[in-house]
Structures are given as structure tokens and as C-alpha cells.
Amino acid sequence: MHDLQIRPADESDVPLILDFIRRLAEYERRPQDVTATEDQLRETLFGARPAAEVLLAYWNGESAGFAVYFGTYATFAAQAGIYLEDVYVHPHLRGKGIGSALMRRVAEIAVERGGRRMDWSVLDWNEPAIQYYRNLGAEPVSGVVKFRLRGAAFDRLALKATGA
User: Fold this and answer.
1) 97 vs 100: CA distance, rounded Å
2) 159 Cβ contact partners less than 8 Å away, ≥ 6 residues apart
3) How far, in whole angstroms, is CA 77 from its chain's centroid?
4) What is the pLDDT, as a whole number, of residue 161?
5) For the chain, N or C: smaller number of CB within 10 Å?
6) What pLDDT digit, counting tens, does each position of 19-58 carry?
7) Strand order of the sheet with strand 53-59?
8) Gyration radius of the chain's alpha carbons
9) Which DSSP string corresponds to the chain?
10) Is 83 a catalytic residue?
11) Which of 58, 83, 132, 133 is catalytic?
């Protein structure tokens, strides 16, 4: 019998969270993009205004994976939801239902908070994940183009907004 436990992360888990972030970045072929530090994670996840929440999964006592999520709002439906920013399971523990359990718990949290929707993105080359999500019943969102404003372009817009 295998033992799967999922629990909310707390501030003492910051080193483990950063390790998961680095492993996820390696898997996504983007290790150079990780600039997060333990201090930043402490502030953004456990500070005065947490930007996201983290669930940790353990398989037979071994750290197995994590999910990072935050609340969203659907204006047309006037309803809360959740955005699943990241879900990751150690490669040697995949196929044991850990990722499904993490996603299920995030969906349960959405329901507990009055939500009926969960959104996420997946890299277009990640066929195993895409197939897994389709098997869950998830559908790609058509007619939507994802944008990101960062770096100098973000700074220009933010500085205009503040008059700086």
C-alpha cells in the first residue's frame, strides 16, 4: 500500500519549493529563466500579501511534487476560479496518480472558494501533458492569444502609469 499525502506549503518549505521550481525549469528546458530566491519566495508566498499558494505532495514520505496556484475571477460569470500556474511531479514518481491528486485538490479548493473553473497553460511541445489534460476532459481555449508584458516594455508602461 502506498501513502500519498498532500498538504499546503508553509514558510519552512521554501527551500523545497525552490528546488521544485528549478526541477520544473530543467524539464521545460528553461533553467536560465529561474531567478527566484528563497527570500523572494518567502515574501511572495508567505508575506503580507501572498501572490500564490503551494500544495506539496509526498509519496511514502518522499517529497514527490508540487502545485502552484492563485485565484482568478471570471467577469462574465461573476465567479471565482483558480489559475494553476505550475504542477510538477518527480519523473521517477510519475504515473502513480500524484499529479492527478494535486490537480484534484486544486479543483476542490476552487469549489471551496465558490469557483467552478480552473485554467492553466501548457507548453505546445509537451504532448504527454496535453494528452493527459485532454483525458481529464480539459479543452484548449480557442480564440485566445496569451500575451505577456515584461522587462523594459513593462517598465515603460508601469512608469507611465505612475508618472515616474
Assistant:
1) 5
2) none
3) 23
4) 59
5) N
6) 999 999 999 999 999 999 999 999 999 999 999 999 999 9
7) 4-8, 53-59, 62-74, 79-89, 118-119
8) 17
9) ---EEEEE--GGGHHHHHHHHHHHHHHTT-GGG----HHHHHHHHHSSS-S-EEEEEEETTEEEEEEEEEEEEETTTTEEEEEEEEEEE-GGGTTSSHHHHHHHHHHHHHHHTT---EE----TT-HHHHHHHHHHT----TT-------HHHHHHHHHHHHT-
10) no
11) 133
pTM of the complete model:
0.92
- Output the pLDDT for position 12: 98
Q: Phi and psi (nearest 5°) for 38?
A: -60, -40
Residue with cell 492553466: 120
Measured CA to CA, the distance from residue 86 to residue 45 in angstroms comes to 14
